[in-house]
Fold this sequence. Notes:
- This protein is of the alpha/beta class.
- The protein contains ten helices and seven strands.
- The chain has helices spanning 4-21, 23-38, 52-58, 75-78, 96-106, 124-135, 146-151, 162-165, 193-214, 230-239; strands at residues 43-47, 68-71, 113-117, 139-144, 168-171, 179-182, 188-191.
- The strands form two sheets. It has a five-stranded parallel beta sheet with strand order 2-1-3-4-5, with helices on both faces. Strands 6-7 form a two-stranded antiparallel sheet.
- Helix 2 (23-38) packs across helix 9 (193-214).
- The radius of gyration is 18 Å and the shape is globular.
- The N and C termini lie far apart (39 Å).
- The model has no long low-confidence stretch (mean pLDDT 95).
- This is UPF0309 protein.
Amino acid sequence: MPDSQEFLAAAKDVVDRVVTTHTDAVLAAAGLIATALKGDGVVQAFGTGHSESLATEVAGRAGGLVPTNKIAIRDLVLYGGAPADRLSDPLLERDPAIAHRLYELAAPHPEDVFVIASNSGINGCIVEMAQLVKEHGHALIAVTSLEHTSRAAPRHPSGKRLSDFADVVLDNGAPFGDALLPLPSGGSVCAVSTITAAYLAQMVNAEVVRLLIEAGVTPPVYLSANVPGGDEHNKVLEDRYAGRIRRGA
Length: 249
């Protein structure tokens, strides 16, 4: 019978495996981001469903990099003028055409680097976005479950997966189906991909900051808006990237 201690033990095993096997991949991802930032690029982060949490981890949080922009499907409504009921479609993330509009709304610069998260790595919008990113010459870091994506049929017309387009793949270590603990009646419970993706995001963040400091660049890092002077500090940095990073819903 699943319980909290069983989950903690199982999740720790996955986290330990991810963080001890990703030294080279984390360094490679950090190198791509540091190069982009030194060239006046920003990090464009995208994920759908629960993978949006990775984009939220990357973009616009305390202790994170300021030149980061989160792309989300709701941008179609918030910035693109689509009717709100467009978001009621539960299969929207499977539509490749959506990626073109989202890319257009983000208006990335050539020097921008992309981080795209998808546990399965197979849905049409995600794969189409990855393809667009590479067609436009951007570096691409993918965060996905290699176990899941290798066992799932792609839903993109190309027959490809997110990982097929990536310059660097960060494997979140999640099992097929994401959840860790088997149920007596079948199926499983307690997903882990969000936890490991957050670890990977912050490992990369730390290495990017190290690389910038070593290059003589002051890292543009957020203070918490809930400490004295945080708002003022953050506004000065955000103003450098006006029109390129969005903060809000």
